[in-house]
Write a structure and sequence with these properties.
Layout: E1 9-10, E2 13-17, E3 21-26, H1 31-34, E4 42-46, H2 54-62, E5 69-76, E6 79-86, E7 88-89, H3 90-93
Length: 106
Amino acid sequence: RVEPAGPRPAMGVRLRDDDGVRVSSVAEDSPAAEANLAAGDLIVSLNGVRYGDSSSVIRAIGRMRVGDKVRVIIERDGKRYGANIKLKAHGDTFAETPQAEQSAEF
């Protein structure tokens, strides 16, 4: 596997697998927070592609670059919402998160 050059991209969410890919938390002042994503949101798709688990979502974001825009469709309270999110560098988004916890965040 070839790692992309430069900083790792991130939206500013932590995920869990629970009846699909759910947001378990959103980092303060992150791109996801600016787009009003919230804990409990179900990620329906990224750029029109559906993912079955959080690992697949993290890999998809990992193939992108800082500054790329991602179209995210989420489901909340039975309704679907869309947001365009501009990815930031992982360190800028999760500066206070211990290293051991970062693997589940993007």
